[in-house]
Amino acid sequence: MWRSGIQFKVYQDILAGKIKLPNLPDTSMKLRHTLANPNFRVKDLLPPLHANPEIVSVIMQAANSTAFYGSRPSSDLNSAIIRLGTTSVTSIVLTHSMETTFVKRSMPSRHVIRTLWQQNMRIGTLSSAIASRIADYGVRVDPDMALLAGSMYHVGTLMLLSYLQNHKLAMPSAEEIEEMPSQISSNIGVVLAKHWQMEEEVVNCIRHRDQFEELTAGPFNLLDVFQFATLIHRIKDKNDLSLPPLEKTVPVKKAALHGILGESLDHFVTLVDAKANLLLSTLSGHGGSQSTQSAVSSAATRYGVATEQETKTSSKVTPISAARRYCA
């Protein structure tokens, strides 16, 4: 039987410096170090990336996928980085690094940890898809930063489970994980994100991950996107009855307040969900299956809008016209 009090004990020990926090793998650390140099060139990124063939494979797959910009294939890593941009590459590397740190090194409790990681990636890809979609309404939230923030939703819980496993302590069941106090897992995640030198915007998302009650001031921002994605996951995917209907939640009300949704929430969620599935398939190494790509196209056709790829390749379709057709 797992003792829930150990969660708080681990958190206290982390704050007291008694528990060594995990570092990100070398590839991620070297990449961040290179990007910190304002005079870096793309070719400077190649050595640390080439040292990890698995990451290279994911980057190439992403660059040549429908989820990103894949019309003409990238034949080498250099052109793939140029196509994706360094922010996208960094997000891909960081999410892969977190998976390596917490999932691929876990054995006895791999199923429980894998499930949490899949939820992370679901929230991350939903966040990225929402950020991409609201750009049509003139709202600028970096989709790559949204992917990174969302993929860290459960990072505090993953850190806790990793510690328990490494010290051969009793592991909680999936049901017991659901019942863990959210704030302690969030606090552990904040400490770890700061240790990894994540951007303050990302840290803020982890800090307020389940605090949906208060309307944040100012424009629709990364935290709003992150919470919107979290609510879609909890209400639509997990049928969380402790939360109100999606249309009555604060992030959705704020989106409507800023003219992002109008009366088309169901349309918006369907399109975002299809794109998130495509992105998730790409980042999982499947390249975006034909059926997933078809889901994006069929959702776009159903609601009379252009897909992102059509918007990029057709001079007749602009983000503004697509948004008008979408809200019609």
From TrEMBL:
Residues 21-212 form the HDOD domain. It comes from the Bacteria. Pfam families: HDOD (PF08668). PANTHER family: PTHR33525, RIBONUCLEASE Y. This is HDOD domain-containing protein. It comes from Litoribrevibacter albus. The lineage of its organism: Bacteria, Pseudomonadati, Pseudomonadota, Gammaproteobacteria, Oceanospirillales.
